[in-house]
Prior knowledge:
- The chain has 592 residues and is of the alpha+beta class.
- The chain has helices at 108-125, 142-151, 160-163, 176-179, 286-301, 317-328, 342-345, 354-368, 397-417, 431-453, 460-465, 470-489, 491-502, 525-546, 552-575; strands at 9-13, 17-22, 28-33, 39-43, 52-56, 58-65, 68-83, 86-98, 130-132, 192-203, 206-216, 240-248, 251-259, 266-267, 279-280, 303-308, 335-339, 371-374, 379-382, 386-391.
- Strands 6, 7, 8, 9, 10, 11, 12, 13, 16, 17, 18, 19 and 20 form a 13-stranded mixed sheet that branches. The chain has a 5-stranded antiparallel sheet with strand order 4-3-2-1-5, with no helix packed on it.
- The longest helix has 24 residues, at 552-575.
- It is globular and about 95 Å long.
Amino acid sequence: MDALTHEGLSLITTDEKFYLVPLTSAKEVLEIDRLNFELTVIDRKEVPSSGQRREICALIGIIHLLAGPYLVVATGRNKIGQLDGHSIFEVTGFDVLPFSKSTIHLSVVQQQDNQQYLAMVQRALATPGFYFSYSYDLTHSLQRKHHLTQTKPNFLQLPLHERADERFVWNSHLTRDLVVQPELRRFIVPIMHGFIAVREGTINGRRFGFVLISRRSAHRAGVRYYMRGVDNEGHVANYIETEQIVVYNGVQASFVQTRGSIPLYWSQRPTLKYKPTPVISQRDNQAIGIQRHFDEQIVYYGQQVIVNLIDQKGPEKNLGDSFQYYVHQLTSCLVGYDAFDFHKECSKMRWERLSILIDRLSAKQDEFGYFMMDPAHGAVVSVQQGVFRSNCIDCLDRTNVVQSMLARRSLVAQLQRLQILSAGEMIEDKKEFESTFKNVWADNADCCAQQYTGTGALKTDFTRTGKRTRMGLLRDGYNAIARYYYNNFSDGFRQDAIDLLLGNYIVDRWEGVTVPSPLRPERSWQIRLLPIVVLIAVSMLFMSLILPSTNSLLQLVYIMFWGVTILATVAYVYSRGQEFTDSPKLVHQKVS
């Protein structure tokens, strides 16, 4: 297939300019002036023979930090597979290159801040799951793409970045200097964040393509405890559209589901507790956010059935009750609601009870159907009339288990319609493809969880094997501990990194001069002193325990004193836990 963007570039760097030269025979070359920042298309003949030369996969964009602009490029790629004849790639490496050759124009403090901003960009780009194609639009589902081609005759003639669904483009901010110049369109590659798997399945001697795509929204993007709920535009945290695709003899079938944070104004900031209590905002009009959210969802997908998997007791109960209340206040009759207390119903390893939920949803799933078309004959066989919008508190582990079960049910119907499966046959009976299906969905769970929490998903042993195992429980325990550490002590930086990458925060070049730097918030002297107190107390307690003493009573007093000091300090820290966590500094310093 012909590429809509240049398939690989040679980056030539000189003291004054960057040159992006297509690896194909195309004559156009992008010249970037490192001094005045101008972007110009020149002829290949004008490229100098001198300069450092390296191959890159794609131009991701330009980001402005304190030292000036930086060129962001993809340096490595891994081919995931092909979809509709187009190659799909995962980015395996990025580089961030300064326009300026030095930072001597910055003060020492500004240089330190610039390094921190640069580290944020690199941290955001180091998150797994960035994908692109030179010729295929990854951001639209098959059904949405077909609808757009029917309603907009020139849709397929548009550059990739113009036809893309802006919800799922993660380098929109980075390409803002490029999109204003139409002549640069073949240098602009939209980047999607999420998960893609392309596999081949064989059942009853029939080979077919099996694809899973999870598209993470760039709206209200962030990390677990710093990004919850809905904003005033109706965007929710951790929103992901997941599409399962089957391709057989040219016929394409897809089934779409969505997930996203409960669309209320609520927060759950880290406090050093293992599970902070969700707090519902009392100052915001909850009806506005949830109405806007579902108004948008209905435009995109039609009918909605909410599958709410959170606990119906304990800290999550109040949130679930409020969600149900406001759903029933919606003005649309196209939104249904089904609550299923996953932890209660499946406690004591009773995972077979998930069938209760799937049976409840089966009639609606049959009504919604799936999208199927035969491009060779230009015929749409069926369309999907609505989606299941699943959520738990994080929209990760429980959500992925239920989504995989709904996807399995839809897949059986599609394969039977394509005559790959006979009536009455089930995927479970086809061991080779059953393993492929389970592992793809488990990989999807791990990748989505890694992006939101910093660790792989929980409960993936059930997704991979169909049952819970002791090794799975041990793995979940390790991931739970790792999540606790990341959520409390490193996620503030990660949230800032995402906000910087997406343009939610724009660096002011006068920061540290006439504008205060957000990277240097003042902490009280008590907060700075407490770690020293704990270190001294632990050292003294250790010495009191191991050093010999002629006065055992005095030694006991020392041990008790330093022990009490440690306990009192820890209790004080725990009571004011939020002050000791790693909080964002750029956009989300406070609850949003």
